[in-house]
Amino acid sequence: MSQTPTGPDADQASTEAAAAPAFRRVTTAVVTGSSADAPYHVEVKAGTHPLTSDEPVRRGGSDSGPEPFALLLASLGSCTAITLRMYAERKEWPLESVRVRLGYETDGRNGRIARRVALTGALDGDQRARLLDICDRTPVTLALHAGVAIDTTEDRA
Question: Does the model's pTM come out above 0.85?
Answer without folding.
Answer: no
